[in-house]
Amino acid sequence: MPHNRTITLIVVALTIFVDTFICGIVVPVLPLYTKTLGLSSLQLGMIFSAYSAALLLLSIPMGIISDKFGPKNIMVFGMAILTVTTIAFGMAKTFLALFLIRFLQGVAASATWVVGPALVASLYCPAERGGKMGLAMMGNNFGFLFGPVVGGFLYGWGGYAAPFRVSAFIAVLI
Hints:
Elements: H1 2-36, H2 41-69, H3 71-89, H4 95-123, H5 126-158, H6 161-173
C-alpha cells in the first residue's frame, strides 16, 4: 500500500505545517494586540507559554490516547480543536480568554506533533523511516518560516482577526 502511505505522509506533513503556521502567525500579531488590550509583558509571556505548557503536559498522554483510539482519530480531533481555537483567538478580548485559547492550541499541537510522526514511523520500515520523518517534519519548518511573515502581512492588511480567519480556513481545508 505505498499509495496510502504516501497520502498519509502528505497529510501528516500538511497537518504539522498548518499547526506550526498558526503557531507562527501569532508571533507578530499577539504583542501588538495585547498592547491594545493593556496587558503586561508578563501576561503576554504567559499567553505564549500556555501553548508550550499544554504541549509539554500532554505529549505522553496524547501518545497513549492515540494508541487507544487510533492516530487518525486523534489527528482529526487535534485539527478540529485547532480550527475552533483559531477562530476563537480572533475574537478573544481578555487575558484569560487568550491564555485558555492558547493552551487549547497547545492541546491540539500535542495531537499533531506527537501522533503525526508516530503514525508516519509506523508505516515505514527502519531503512525508510528517517527520510520519511524528515519529510513530515518539513511541514514544521515551513510553518514556522511562513507563519510569522503571513501573520504580519494579514494583520497589516485586515487587522487583528484577519490572520486567524485565514488560518482557520486553511485548517478546515486540511
